[in-house]
## 1
Amino acid sequence: MERLTFDEFLDARTEFEADVQATPNISHFCSSPGWIVPALLEISEFDPAETSCLIVRDGNSWLVFAENRPGYWYPFESAWLFQNPLIGPKAVELLAAAKREFLGENPQGFVIGGVQNETEFHENLKLLPGAIHFDEFPATDCMVADLTNGVDSFLAGRSKKFRRSIRMARDRCSEVKIEEAALDFERMMAIQKRTRKWQDGSDIFHHDDCSRFYRRMIADFGDRLLFRVAKIDGKDAAFLLGSVFGETFRGLQMSFADEFRPLGIGNFLQIDTMRHVFEHERVTSYDLGMFSEYKERWADETKEFLGCFLVL
């Protein structure tokens, strides 16, 4: 069992990411370094010189916490609690051992996000020996489309109304060209600022911390992110941003200029991207992210994630 500094953790990110991918029943992309480090630095405004971390590694099991205030430890990404800070097959046991070894006898509180409900991990966490207190609460669920058998099979499971809307979007967007582009934050934002969400003031990019988070995440992931731009008459009309992580494509942002809403260009770009990542990346699932009403038409499953508060 070894406690790492923040810089040592950054140096070990490749090994950590591999262990994240091998951990079942978590949000893999949102527990990876490319998501959690930008969230810590930009949304939580973490300063390594002033804030303690509890980063512990034992083989392929990890703990990844930052101290929110004295005696309270949070995941690096605590804005949405997608991240599970306990990684690997023995992470629950490691939490108890690391608390004793590195934090002493005084009670310490741990917030643990990304706990999928009614899994073995969930049960082990509830039954952890030595826990003084355990509580759980709703966190951010994830909506998932099943691409195991391809896009045609996915569409066969949708309603007639949905399939008709996809056909209509395809017909109306027959002149649309889709470009796989080098990711450019300013280009992305130029489209974002033409959306209805931007115009009505509800866009996440109105918040400076979210903009900084996306900028840093884009820099961290680099060409591992997929940036697809739909163009009409040579001009940018819509974009979809996401990343393949293992056998899952994680959608991050999909937006279109509001003047093209009647074309159904969002549907067109979404289904084309599904087909692309299935055929070229062999993904089996498309993680649509947190709940949104429009996503209900696309999702085959909603994975229920909990946040847990544990005192040891």
## 2
Amino acid sequence: MNHTGNIGTEPKSAMRRSWSDGLTAAAGVLFLLLLMLLPLVGPAASRGSGSPGATRAPHYAKNVVAFLSVWLLTLLATAAALGARRRVLQQSSDRWSRFLWAEVVVLLGILVAFLTGALAI
């Protein structure tokens, strides 16, 4: 029973907190997935394995589309989690918000590295 006397219902703040925690977890999982997809656009995929006669992977364009799609999805999930945490906590100084801001910085760094060709070195 909660403070209003209704059984089985949560206060809105607890439900919002659960929602923001879920978004934070989803952003973290998507970030790890993105890191696992980095080899799809890395040196071996873009230039070949280094063996004589090795060339770019024939499906490299699809790899780039998949990588950028997951990158965008990760950025959107991270932004949603930051917005939800800010709304719930009325501040951005908790540990997970700092983690999410660091994730945004790394995501932008990955994008810059990808666009400049540094991932294919």
